[in-house]
Amino acid sequence: MNEVTEWEERQKSIGQVIEELKTFSDQELVVVVTADGGETFKTVKLISKGFDGDKVYCALHI
Q: Superkingdom of this entry's organism (predicted)?
């Protein structure tokens, strides 16, 4: 059985991400992402605007 934890189903808006990032006292920290529960991390290289039909999204490039 494939169990999905609550946080894996969440989505965040740009505003929500910005508000959370503002809580870090050291604003020079490097931003990293993980897709495997913290086994590996990759740094964010670029942020872009993407399109999927009529839907606009923010993409983090690693």
A: Bacteria
Residue (of 35, 44, 29) closest to 7 by Cα position: 35
Report the alpha-carbon distance of residue 59 to residue 23 in Å, rounded: 22
CB 19 within 8 A of CB 30: no
CA distance 55 to 38: 30
Dihedral in degrees, nearest 10, Cα atoms 6, 7, 10, 13: 150
- Please, what's the largest Cα pairwise distance for the chain? 41
